[in-house]
Design a protein that fits this description.
The protein has 116 residues and is mainly beta. It is built from two helices and seven strands. The chain has one domain (24-115): START domain (Alpha-D-Glucose-1,6-Bisphosphate, Chain A, domain 4). It has helices at 31-39, 44-47; strands at 24-27, 51-56, 66-71, 76-85, 89-94, 97-105, 112-115. The longest helix is centred in the first third of the chain and has 9 residues, at 31-39. The radius of gyration is 20 Å and the shape is globular.
């Protein structure tokens, strides 16, 4: 049998790199108001350019919560909240794909800062 090189029965490791894109915005509003906008699905179309509508299948946003998000293209996709720290951060998967990880940073002054 001819071959290209030595054969090995050892498994090979695969390294996957994920690129991340961060956006930062300072908001001149009380932190609790900003957090309400970020965590209430009714408000997601206001700040999420790809969201037409969102519906939570339950009473509150928390880790493990699920729902449906309608994209600007009209696609209804399932989502799951993968991380939730009250008044600090939440992250989600949309259609099984890791999506936004939102963090609320409160500086020592009264304004709030949002990183998406």
């Amino acid at each position: 049998m001819s071959g290209i090189g030595p054969r090995s029965d050892k498994p090979t490791a695969t390294v996957t790199r994920v690129k991340q894109l961060w956006s930062h915005r300072d908001v001149d509003a009380p932190a609790n108001t900003v957090w309400e906008l970020l965590t209430n699905p009714r408000h997601w179309p206001v700040w999420g350019p790809t969201v037409r509508q969102a519906e939570l299948h339950g009473e509150r946003l928390e880790a493990g919560a699920t729902g449906t998000v309608t994209t600007m293209l009209g696609l209804d996709l399932p989502f799951e909240i993968t991380a939730y720290d009250e008044a600090e951060r939440w992250a989600w998967k949309v259609a099984g794909v890791t999506a936004t990880d939102l963090r609320l940073e409160i500086p020592r002054i009264s304004a709030a800062s949002v990183t998406v």
